[in-house]
Amino acid sequence: MSSLERYDDWLTKDDDAAIVIREVLVPVEGPDGVFFPATYAASEDKTFPGGYNIDPPTGPKNVCLVDSVGSQANRIEPIFGKPAYAELVPQIVIEAGEKRVNLLEAGHRAGDAIVRCTPLQRQVRDAFTEVLKGNALPMAKIAPTSLVFGVWDSRDTQAKLPRLIAATIRAFDVQRLTRSAVYLPAVNYVDQGLVPEELDAGKGKDNPLAQRGYKHNPASAAHGGVVAHGGVRRDVTVSLAALRMLSAGDDMAQTLALRRYILGLALAALTAPVQTYLRQGCNLVPDVSQPRAVTLVCANGKREALVLDEAETLAFARLAAKAFKVGDSVSARFDPDLAKKDLTDDAKQAPKKSAKAGARKSDAR
């Protein structure tokens, strides 16, 4: 069996369901260190008041979302712009104003507005249309990471591809903390006659002087991070079952080449060095006392320990990419006229969308 064929059973047989990684993490300060999970806005119906996503909101036995599946994907995907990985995918760079944005950095990937409003619009739309027909080959040629990390063309064709890689960081049995602070100005600006006294009106953040840093301003009971008494864990899943759903139409040889290529990207992403710094106050590293567990989960429920080596998976990814023939790298410019047309067309469609939504609601009654 050649190196290129080593994973073919995963790609052609239904025996294996997924690769799962479980990795215990600790704050750089230690297992009892305070760290800051992501915060989220309140839900529209106010059932979620905003802040840390902790379920249940009260009580010792809970689960706290530290980094979501979408956030993890957005942290992993840009590795394909780094020198060691850049040759594996086409580099699609878009000039927008004074910025140059790689498609790898766009939150909605191939479905993002930044690519929809460029001369690449037709090529990307055609690729989404082919996806709807069961042919993922054109998408793999222009935006292969959209096949790895998932994409939804929600503004146009409605084509949707699931995430093959799903990574999440959660903390368990967390204790929520608060913190307080007070800002003290360098001088008393009002007493010194340096600012008009009549502006010193209102309390706290409603005081104009406090807003601009001319008056002391206390902040009490703000988010102060959490302590995870039950530990922190990063869970990563590569869905082999979903990967086997990708095809190049009826061409079986191209389908196998496509699956090898996408698997190579997934394995390279899976074994690449992980970003430890998530945000201010949240720097999490592997717990060396508990090595990460890599498991091949079979379709019948059996589990087998798996060894994935970074150098070997990267070598396979390069071999599969060469056999597949990676799509061309392209530079394009964001076109304000296309953006204007996109917004105008969407506005024209809004009443029709509303009418259809109303009909669906009526039917639901």
Structure description:
- With 365 residues, this protein is an alpha+beta fold.
- It has 2 domains: 3-172 and 231-335, no CATH class; 177-225, no CATH class.
- 31% of the residues lie in helices and 26% in strands.
- The chain has 11 helices and 18 strands.
- The strands form 5 sheets. Strands 1, 4, 5, 10, 13, 14, 15, 16 and 17 form a 9-stranded antiparallel sheet that branches. A 3-stranded mixed sheet has the order 7-6-18, with no helix packed on it. It has a two-stranded antiparallel sheet with strand order 2-3.
- α9 packs antiparallel against α10.
Mean pLDDT: 91
In one word, what is the shape?
A: globular
State Rg. Answer: 25 Å
Strand content: 25-35%
Helix content: 25-40%
Number of domains: 2
Could you give the count of β-strands?
Answer: 18
The largest pleated sheet is described as: 9 strands, antiparallel
Low-confidence stretches: 357-365
Instruction: Please provide the ordered H/E string of secondary-structure elements.
Output: HEEEEEHEEHHHHEEEEHEEHHEEEEHEH
- Backbone structural class: alpha+beta
Compact description:
With 365 residues, this protein is of the alpha+beta class.
SSE arrangement:
Layout: H1 8-12, E1 16-27, E2 39-40, E3 51-52, E4 54-55, E5 63-67, H2 69-76, E6 92-96, E7 99-102, H3 113-116, H4 121-132, H5 137-142, H6 145-149, E8 151-152, E9 160-161, E10 165-172, E11 174-183, H7 208-211, E12 217-228, E13 232-239, H8 240-243, H9 252-271, E14 277-279, E15 282-286, E16 293-298, E17 303-305, H10 310-324, E18 330-333, H11 336-364
Parallel strand pairs: 6-18
Antiparallel strand pairs: 1-13, 1-15, 1-16, 2-3, 4-5, 5-10, 6-7, 8-9, 10-13, 11-12, 14-15, 16-17
